[in-house]
Amino acid sequence: MAFTEEVYKSRRIVLVRFVRARTGRPTYTYPDLDDRGWLHDPAAANGETPALVHGPVFGMAQDKEVVIKLERLRLEEAASGGPDLFVKSEDETIASIVEPANNAELPADGTFRIKGGTGSWRDKFCKLTVHVGSESGPIIGECGVRVFQRRTVRVHPWLLNLRGRTAPGGPITAGTCATTQANITTLFRTVNRIWRSCGIYFHVDAADTSGSVNMVGNPGELTENSGGAAITHPNGNAFPAGTDDSNGVHRNNRRANRCNIWWVRRIRDLTPGAGTTMAWAMDNTTDSGGVNQSGIVMTDAADANDLAHELGHYLSLDHSDEPAAGSGSRSRNDIQVLRRLMYRFNPHGRTGYRRNVGYGSGLRGALITMRDKPKHFRDDEWFEARRRAIRGAY
Q1: CA 201 → CA 23, 198, 284, 386, 390, distances in Å?
Q2: Which runs of E-coded beta strand occur in 283-339?
Q3: N or C: at which end does the chain have fewer Cβ atoms within 10 angstroms?
Q4: Cα-atom radius of gyration of the chain, to the nearest Å?
Q5: pLDDT tens digits, residue range 132-146?
Q6: For the stretch 161-174, what's the b/e string if a residue is b when 16 or more beta carbons lie within 10 angstroms of its beta carbon?
Q7: Range list of H helices, 78-204
Q8: What is the pLDDT of residues 22-31, one digit of tens each?
């Protein structure tokens, strides 16, 4: 087919594009694609494999299969007289096309299935190329795939009883969270679907119910004061600016060589207008006494995406929208960061294009970036997360 395009200076004409093969919640089989830009990544600074590809990049675990979709942008469908398209792997020891089999043309829906071959502790990278007319025809599209060996991070969950007072001088009463072992198992099913794209698997111990802590705040609550002035809790206890009552949680309920996660009823910020906090994460953090605090606090109301996000923080990732050095402290809230797992806010309720970040209207994004773009801050997240996971004593 012929088309007309007005070009000022230069423009890359894209005939086809690779996309996530389904809309809906995260699954093992349908990964998200990091499609930020069509230029090669710069030379790797830390030993990671740069994405030298004109197209998106996705990640997968070795010996597993995923499905990707190819969309025709400026080509007619084959049924309407357009050319047949073929997808090939440039290194089948890393990633091979298993459907369509025997190098056949792509089906009408454009989907194809890839199997991961040899991965590594960092990654193995290869290109997938789209050919027009035959498997040896001209290349009209490229996509990159990173294949990872699985790295297991062991998790120890705590279902805590936070004992506290509701009034000055009142009795100390129990505050057991409502989360159960069954809830945790369900949450981690989704968490592992998200993190498999980086070859990371979270193995969860049986939930520990032995933890009991006397808190400064209400029963079941972890209390903080994120503001700049001291606040008195309704039960009479003073909270200086920038403090919380979490030390007893972190210090007394720990399992060695694990990512410790503590479930509580809620996290209460005494600062007026502070809003609701679903979870906390602390990476390589010590308290004022030099005691390790690293771990995650989850509330009963937090969902699987919240948990996957906090595990990203635990694995050293920052918020994707936080200001870059030299940006004048301006944060980003464009669609490139909004759709990522490490975006600071859940985009529920946003209007227009922001309502769908690739998983369906109102569902939070789960993309973990696979590319390192010079003008994008806080990306190349697969590398940072795997480096922390590999170095951890799990």
Answers
A1: 23, 9, 20, 11, 12
A2: 295-299
A3: N
A4: 24
A5: 999 999 999 999 999
A6: bbbbbbeeeeeeee
A7: 181-195
A8: 999 999 999 9
